[in-house]
Structures are given as structure tokens and as C-alpha cells.
Write the C-alpha cells for this entry.
Amino acid sequence: MSRPAASPEFAGLVRRFWLPVWRVPSGEVYTQRVLQYPVCLVVVTGDYARFYGPASGLAATPLSGDGWAAGVMFEPAAGALLTGGEVARRTDGHVELADLFGSAGASLAARIRATMKPDPVAPQAQSAVTEEYQDFLRGHLPVDGQGLLVNEVVAYVEDNPEVTRVADVCAHFGIGERSLQRLTRHRVGLTPKWLVRRRRIQDATWRLRTGATTIAALAADLGYADEAHLSHDFRRVTGMTPGAFAAHYAD
């Protein structure tokens, strides 16, 4: 999978592009499950072209046959700039690009398909697709002050594992909890508590994959009162207990 970076002018709006190509044996379906970041996405494939709001749970995408996708992972600030409204309305949902952006969205999808279809692994095609996206997104610059703030809030939670409470975030930014809730609901589509919990679960999945920790030690390191509280959060998000998850990756 190719993950081209955006040009510097898109800092604050675009995290990265991603361009996967897959080949699944005939008659089989592979379901890709991902704990996504608290951001919106745009994905164009040969079959659909969609804007996705943030996923509050485990995102699952079925893949079959031969295919490709051309996606944009946005920064938290981008959702409201692109949709012109509260991102909470888009959480766990998607909309066709043609419905959200009209003829401009339909035209973007058509250009990307025309570029990718002949040879989706060609570097020239992938470079051209990122340029198509950037040309389309340039009209949504610059990122506003509130957007830059919410980017900082999300980055602070993601980059600092010692943050285990919403109060930690409020103290760092000098903002009240209700104000922070309004900010993240409008710009991210999720609550501050969700941001902290998701980062902790992402940390947990990474460490359980390595097999380098016990569940009790993991719960303590991530600031949970005990294993039961970690297991509750973990199962709600992934559908598996930490023990079952660790066993799956040990096989």
C-alpha cells in the first residue's frame, strides 16, 4: 500500500493519502477491520466514491476480487470545512461525493477512476491521483483557528499516553469540559472521553499484538482501575476480549 504525504500547504487539513491495491481469490471475501483515527475520510474505488464521517467503533470493509482504492485521511479540522456543518451528524455514516459536492464531486471521482483503472500500481497514476485530490481540496484552505485548535487537542491525546482523563486535556489547554465537548462534537463528531478511550484501546491492541505484556500490566499502564474495566472498553470497541485478541495474534 502506498501512503503519499500531502504537500506542505495542506498541513492542518490532510494527514495523508493512501492507495491500496488488492487481489482476493475468486469466491472469497476478506474483511478488513480497522480502529480508525478520529477523522473523516474520502474514498474512491471502481464501485463507489464516498465521504465517510468518523467511525465510533471498529470499521469493517469487505474486499473481494481485484480492486483498488484512492483515499484521503483528513485532519480533525477538515470535516466541518468540507461539509459546512457539525461533524457529529456524519459520525458512523457516509455520503456519496456527488451528493455532498454536486457535479464537482462526481467529476473528481470520474477523473480518479480514469487515472487509476489502467494500472493502479503505477507510480505515475498514484502521483496524478494525489494531485487531483489536492486540486480539489485547495478551495477548502486555509484551516480556521478553531480547526487548528481541535487538531492540537486530538494530537495531544494521541501523542501523550499519560493522558487518561478528559480533565488532563482541559488542564493542558485551559478550557472547560463543556467547551471542549462542544468543540469536539462540532469539529470531530465525537466526545473528549471517546478520544481518550480510543487512544488507550489503540495502545492496547498494539501491545497485545507484540505479546510483550500481561493484561494486568496493560490495564495498569493505561490507567484502568483493573482488568475488568479494560476488558469492558476493549470488547465494546473490538468485539473481542483482550485475552482473545492476544491469542488470535499469537497463533
Observations:
- The first helix runs from residue 78 to 83.
- The chain has two domains: 8-140, 145-250.
- The mean pLDDT is 93.
- The radius of gyration is 19 Å.
